[in-house]
Design a protein that fits this description.
- By secondary structure, the protein is of the alpha+beta class.
- The chain has one domain: Beta Polymerase, domain 2 (2-Layer Sandwich), CATH 3.30.460.10.
- It is 44% helix and 18% strand.
- The protein has six helices and six strands; from the N terminus they run H-E-H-E-E-H-E-E-E-H-H-H.
- The chain has a six-stranded mixed sheet with strand order 1-4-5-6-3-2, with helices on both faces.
Length: 204
Amino acid sequence: MPATVAQILAPYEYKPELVERVASRTVEPSITILEPNPEWPQRFEEVKERIQKALGALILDIAHAGSTSVPGLPAKDIIDVDLSLKDAMDEASYVRPLEEAGFRFLLREPRWHQHRFFVENWPKAYHVNVHVWGPDSPEAARHRIFRDWLRKTPADLELYAKVKREAAKQAAVAGDSMMDYTQRKEETIREILERAFGDLGYNE
């Protein structure tokens, strides 16, 4: 059944003790914010085609998420993909095909909407993150709402761009991890989401 408004509104709380590590990255992505790259949408389409060939009818939806999905938004050189499957718990049906298509299975978070996380399995000039979800994932819905709001709201796009650059600079000085960088943006992300949710009537 579709995600409820309460589920979509509930903020994500990272709990490392609930993460089941399967493997580690072979190459760590850089926390470097780049100016918008017109190649990002095409890179997503290439990844989408690879995933479609690997999984076929198992797929419910493949969406471009993250900052590279928003035209005009500076971002890390990472293509984020939300991959919704009929059954995210049925790893036997999709892990090997995804790995054969070039994506390395890094971790699972069974208590967070059955999240599974894959990355591109070889070094490139840019990185690819694939987030696997089950049907009607609240988190995939949140990603879509955030993306679509930034696409149509220049003021919040500029606000988020400013915070991203500041967080990246702070992370560089402090030697932060990617999770630390993400946490530095969290307050602003929640602020922007509140406006996006209000626009949809979720806060009424």
